[in-house]
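Hi, here's the filled form for the chain we discussed.

Project: internal
Contact: R.S.
Residues: 197
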Amino acid sequence: MIADFSVFGPFCQLPAIGPRKCCHDVGWRRVISTGPLPSAGSQNFEHRTYKPTNWITTIVDKSRDVYDTENGFLRLNQYTNGSNVKGISVETGQPVMLFVPIKKGQFATISYFLPPGVDAPKPLISNVFHETFTEVSLYIRTLQRSAVDSDIYRLGNILQKMLISQKKSFDGSFIGCCLYDGPDKSSRHIEVFFMAI
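And the returned structure, exactly as it came back:
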């Protein structure tokens, strides 16, 4: 089944998420093993394995056949700006991660990366929660350009077709997308992925 990403609202309209610490400094991209890196936007993909990571996550619903990403980002920003049991600002890092379901009627999620050692108190906002991902193996495709919806959707569909054609085993129930730059940048580092199984 090829993914239908038209239900996910426009990434180029997402609110700015503020300054973020470089992902290379906080551990998300500390890869356990990887093959050669393809150039951004190439016709290749990578197989990476990541160490366990922590995230702050919210669920986003559909509104008029698109996901309500704006309110999701607002909830996460409220949490990082002190809407938690300690009333403190919480440092987050890159990337921002989105999980988009393939089947219609399911929820999508938006997550901010929590660097190792960051004090991340319990959220006061409903529908915001902590998640820990165990070690995970991913098939990833990279894009470096302006955040145009069709680029992200096309990249996801291309990756899915490539994995199928190369008989790779992956979880096709959702697609993941990592955004490394804010929407104000003219050239953004974007990665889409499927979990290897």
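Let me know if anything looks off before we file it.
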